[in-house]
Each structure stands twice: as structure tokens, then as C-alpha cells.
Amino acid sequence: MAMNRSRKAVRVLTVRYLRRDAEWHVLEPAYPHDARPLMNTAELRAYARLVERVRSAVSEDREANLSLHGFTTAGKTYELMQVVLGGGAPRRVLLSAGIHGDELAGVVALCEWLETRAYVKFLPQWDITMLPCINPWGYEHGTRANGDGYDLNREFHSSHPPQEVLFVQSVLQQRFDLSLELHVDEESAGYYLYETVRPWAEIGYRVLERIRTMMPVNLDAMIDGKSAEGGVIAGTCGAGHVLKQPMAVYGSAHGIPCSLTLEAGRAPLHRQVQAHLQAIEAALSLCS
């Protein structure tokens, strides 16, 4: 991957390698959290490999649990993943990614967070549920929609939702104090977020302040056709969302007091991943 270099300064980056299946793969440069996303996008998009990657990470922690939920779309069977970390903590958080299959960074970020065991320090305060990839077919094919052509994040209102949405809805019947949804907006020059919260729970601005060192914040007054302030789009429960209800609004209607839809802007994959990792840690720290 070509790296952008300033004419005034050149950074020296450490290149590392990983041996997998008897072959050496170049890894992204070292950044906070010791992130290790492979540069081979085709390998990243192999969903069976993703499942094995998560399974391997979970096997390293006796307190972690992975459950698989099989379903079929476009003639192919996949296993949706649910990872549960911890048990008995006072707060519960749901982390999700990959509802839009063409958005890699969120999926990679959750895998990195799991593999590096960065979650461990939060377990005294948080029970953690992770949905690493909600749209396996879209993930494999690099499409926003699922195998049946549905934008899953617009189907939570449906009387006959896709199987992937039914799976998420079943998870959302549990109590959560916080929901973090990881997305990518390649048309945005910086990071921003949607904030669906109770008035006392506003943390969006503080989360964005924490990620500025990794990615600039989009400070446009209009983002994605919606009014924004300081990188925060608030009040996503408005009437315009009733007919195409996203996951955050559905979760809010089912009792989640704070939902942040995190949107990494246009940047190399490793930058998007690191920005998401910083946002996750900021949100959990601020809400603890």
C-alpha cells in the first residue's frame, strides 16, 4: 500500500511480517493497540477465515464465549458470530460492525481489539457483547447490501426483516447501557458520529476529541445530508427515520440509553481501524 508522505517530513515506519499458511504477509505499520490488519484485502474478505480468526482469539480467553448462528442467503450458508466477554459487571455494551459489507474497518477493528485483549481492562465495569460482522455475504462480496439486495441498516422497521436483522433484534432484547456501531464513510474527509442518547448521556463530542490524533474530525455543518455540529449528528430518532429505521433507533426504542454510530472517514485502512479503536476505548472510559 502506498503511504502518503509530506514534502516537509517523512515518517520512519516499522514494517512487520506474519507467517500464515506457510507464507509471509506484510502487515500494516505498528500503531497503538498493536493493530495487525493484513494488507491483503482478498484474504480479509474471506468470511470463513474471519470466523476462524475470531474463534482463535476467543479460545485464548476462558471467560470468552463464541456462539454461531447459521443462516442462508443467496444460496450460501453463513454463520453469524456473537462474542460475549465477561459476566456480572454493572454495565453492558454492544459492539457491532459489518452491517454494510463494503465497510471493512469496523470488522477489522473489532478483531484487533479481541486479538490484542484490549478489552480486559474494561471487564470490571463492562460485560461486552460483540457482533463482529452482521452482513457476511456483503463482507465477502464488498457490497453495502446483503445477498438478497437489502440494506440491512434500513430494515429494522420491517414486518418481515432479513435473517441478519432478526438475529440482531434477538440480541437487542437483552439489556445494554451502550451500543457502538462501527461504520465507514469514504465520502467524508474526517471522522464523525451519530448520537442517539438520553439527554444526560451525551458523550459524542468527548469521544471525537479523543480520536483527533488519529483522524481529523469532519466539522462540516451538513454531513451526509444532515445537520451536524462539531462532527456530531444528533437526534436520529426524528420522523425522517421512521420508515427506514436503522439499528441505533431500534436499539434506542428498546431501552438502550446511549447509541453511537461511529463513522470513520476516507483514509488508509489502518488509519480507519485505529480511529475506531480509539473511539471504542474513549466511549467505554467516558461511560464507566
Write a concise keyword list for the protein shown above.
288 residues, alpha/beta, Aminopeptidase, disordered N terminus
Write the layout of secondary structure elements.
Elements: E1 17-20, E2 23-26, H1 41-44, H2 47-59, E3 64-73, E4 76-85, E5 91-97, H3 104-115, E6 126-131, H4 136-141, H5 163-171, E7 178-184, E8 192-197, H6 204-211, E9 222-223, E10 226-227, E11 232-234, H7 247-253, E12 258-264, H8 269-287
Parallel strand pairs: 5-6, 5-7, 7-12, 8-11
Antiparallel strand pairs: 1-2, 3-4, 4-6, 8-12, 9-10
Helix pairs in contact: 3-8, 6-8
Cα end-to-end separation: 38 Å
Helix content: 25-40%
| Structural domain count | 1
Instruction: Quickly give the CATH architecture.
Output: 3-Layer(aba) Sandwich
The first-level CATH class name: Alpha Beta
Structural class assignment: alpha/beta
How is this structure best described in words?
The chain is of the alpha/beta class. The protein has a single domain, classed as 3-Layer(aba) Sandwich (Aminopeptidase). Helix content is 27%, strand content 24%. It has helices at 41-44, 47-59, 104-115, 136-141, 163-171, 204-211, 247-253, 269-287, and strands spanning 17-20, 23-26, 64-73, 76-85, 91-97, 126-131, 178-184, 192-197, 222-223, 226-227, 232-234, 258-264. Helix 3 crosses helix 8 and helix 6 packs across helix 8. The protein is globular, with a radius of gyration of 18 Å.
